[in-house]
Amino acid sequence: TFDGGPTDRYTGPVLARLREAHVHVTFFIRGQFIDGRRARLRQELREGHELANHSYSHPYYPDTHELWRTNHLIRGATGYTPCLFRAPYGAVNGALLDRARHLGMLTIGWDVDSWDSLYDNLSASTIYKRVVHGVRPGSIILMHDGEGSHPGTLRALAPILRNLHRRHYKVVPVSQLLHLRARTA
């Protein structure tokens, strides 16, 4: 999974690496970055990726409006309404879980943190090791294409995907991993 985009600097290169590896992922979208990047969201969907909600402005415990606004912007840009939500910083409480559920979204965490958002200029080697040593069957990996400095992510991504392929892991969007059914309305 990739959090925090779309951004001009990282989302395009991430998509190129995913395309080269023939894999599809889930992008947890930050609403405030959608304006001017609607075509990028449509590209993500067209290429087989899944869009999910990561709030509008990334606060701790976002309110209902933050969640609704991001869903509204994603739907306006793509026609797709997210059914998955990831809390900023992974910080959840019962009220936030209820807000997401009320808007028809399942809240998703992760079990493998690449650390690519914790430190500026984290090395590709550290990111690679964090992911390939932490992954297990059914893992959800946290990476970022959002604001901040992620050159290590770009350098580590292709080697990570090659390693996972060699180990017979299949990289899939979260809804496929969790066997969620598509919802039409």
Give an account of the 3D structure.
This protein has 185 residues and is of the alpha/beta class. It has 7 helices and 7 strands, in the order βαβαβαβαββαβαα. The protein has helices spanning 11-21, 38-46, 64-78, 94-102, 124-134, 151-166, 174-177, and strands spanning 2-3, 26-29, 50-53, 84-85, 106-107, 112-113, 141-144. Helix 5 (124-134) links the parallel strand 6 and strand 7. It starts with a strand and ends in an 8-residue tail after the last helix.
Properties at a glance:
41% helix, two-stranded parallel sheet, 7 strands, 5-stranded parallel β-sheet, alpha/beta, single chain, 185 residues
The gist of it:
Helices cover 41% and strands 11% of the residues.
The share of residues in helices is 40-55%
Query: What's the average pLDDT?
Result: 96
Major sheet, described briefly?
A: 5 strands, parallel
- Structural classification: alpha/beta
Query: Uncertain regions: pLDDT < 50 for 5+ in a row?
Result: none
List the helices and strands and how they pair.
Blueprint lengths: L1 E2 L7 H11 L4 E4 L8 H9 L3 E4 L10 H15 L5 E2 L8 H9 L3 E2 L4 E2 L10 H11 L6 E4 L6 H16 L7 H4 L8
